[in-house]
Design a protein that fits this description.
25% of the residues lie in helices and 30% in strands. It has seven helices and 13 strands.
Amino acid sequence: MTKGKSIVVAEASDLQAYDVVAEGVDAIRSIIQANVGDMSNLNEFSLPRAINGSGSSNRFEIPGLGDESEMVSEIEGIIVFHTPARAYFEKSYEETGGGEQPDCRSNDGVHGVGDPGGLCPKCQLAQFTKNSDGTTERPRCDLMKRLFILRPGEIMPTMFNAKAGNVGQCERYMFNLSVKGRLKFNHCITKLTVSKDKYKNGRDWMKWNFSMLSKLPGEICQQMDAFHEFLGPIVRDIEITADEVADGNDPEW
């Protein structure tokens, strides 16, 4: 995806695997409205959420139709929405066992709601701190990047939650799409894989690796823009859960 390099355009036959493309955004909206009514009825439990594996498994757990799930190390799809988020818990997951609401949360990564609330960039809980021995302590408030990825055969995206170092992986990919590919994130098919990397202290972590597979044709880009607008009100206010913050392991920055 370097400047001047030819970018492959996705074939129409390949895109038929994406039901939103084959059926159209209006048809998908009609199906959802018929089944769940007002879009405001959708909540944090409505969309499937991928569970980050540990550094030893290097897999995502993708929920199925029932209790079954799929373990995968590679995801291919269209990123139809992404948003930063933050969550602060006064007590640790080990202390509460999960199920608690954050003491303070932000669904845009900027405006905190709760205790202490306020502007996240200025909050002490969002800052790195230096120890007397020169080591660095990570912020007590967790920064995340939520990616909503539409996979083939789905009419609604799966939510993937990047934390710590993988937030940087996401942002680098988005930046490269902009300056090298001249592409919006929802105008291409993205491949996400996971690999084993190590903390500075030698512990394993699950590193996300992004690559752009192909560019979407112009008429499909218009459909994805419409789908992005349709999704916005649904996914912007999805609540942050304690399980989401504790899920998987956190790489260092």
